[in-house]
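Colleagues,

For the teaching module next term, I've prepared a clean inverse folding example: a structure given as tokens, and then the sequence designed for it. I'd like students to try predicting residues themselves before seeing the answer, so please don't circulate the second half yet.
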């Protein structure tokens, strides 16, 4: 199993930490689906900066073309996507994996996604949807909590128990549905099960009616670098049916993507 230590706290400024750059990233992250347009005061409050500090960063981003303003409200521009594209373009595997995922979607008639682990969240790096089955709008770059998703639990299974527990304890473990498991010990058992069987199924813990199963994408060293899943509606695809009829196809697709590494 690989060991990945999640970030803890904010490092002190020094030769290896550029505080102004970190603050710039805080400002960018303050924009979201619920706050796509913000005043200077809102950006400062959301990013934990002074108005003067937030203003300098916003004006810098505006000069570089990452932000626009109408004089009162600031908004990110499409150029901000360049930052995410740099990650995707540095890992061309996802372009090569897309046909495999598309073939899987055509075979099982359910959506397929690939994600990586980032601290307590999963981040989507590729998604091939069918019809919309979730209230949550997902795309490349979307984040979901790891503790209640099939992708997240499987990716956590690649870590040592001590690290898994630390990430679970650091998670905002809310009961998103009546099925959501939030107890750390119970989640540790779920992750251990995923580690043993090398796949993970989660039934309506993220959203009522949503069921998903995930399989590992591993490199030549056997380290899990990402995971692949398929998602469906529980009212038409039970956990038993998904495991028996869709999991084999998913495992085969994940193996093909792994071979691309």
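(Answer key — instructors only)
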């Amino acid at each position: 199993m690989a060991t990945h230590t999640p970030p803890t706290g904010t490092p002190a400024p020094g030769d290896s930490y550029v505080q102004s750059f970190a603050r710039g990233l805080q400002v960018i992250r303050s924009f979201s689906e619920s706050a796509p347009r913000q005043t200077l005061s809102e950006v400062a409050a959301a990013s934990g900066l002074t108005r003067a500090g937030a203003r300098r960063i916003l004006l810098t981003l505006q000069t570089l073309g990452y932000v626009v303003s109408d004089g009162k409200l600031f908004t990110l521009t499409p150029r901000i996507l360049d930052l995410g594209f740099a990650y995707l373009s540095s890992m061309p595997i996802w372009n090569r994996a897309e046909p495999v995922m598309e073939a899987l979607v055509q075979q099982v008639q359910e959506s397929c996604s690939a994600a990586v682990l980032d601290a307590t969240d999963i981040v989507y790096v590729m998604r091939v949807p069918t019809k919309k089955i979730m209230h949550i709008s997902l795309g490349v770059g979307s984040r979901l909590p790891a503790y209640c998703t099939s992708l997240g639990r499987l990716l956590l299974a690649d870590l040592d128990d001590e690290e898994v527990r630390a990430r679970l304890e650091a998670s905002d473990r809310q009961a998103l549905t009546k099925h959501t498991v939030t107890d750390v010990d119970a989640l540790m058992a779920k992750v251990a099960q995923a580690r043993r069987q090398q796949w993970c199924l989660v039934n309506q813990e993220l959203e009522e009616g949503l069921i998903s199963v995930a399989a590992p994408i591993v490199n030549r060293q056997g380290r899990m670098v990402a995971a692949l899943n398929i998602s469906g509606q529980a009212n038409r695809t039970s956990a038993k049916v998904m495991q028996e009829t869709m999991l084999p196809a998913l495992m085969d697709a994940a193996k093909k993507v792994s071979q691309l590494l």
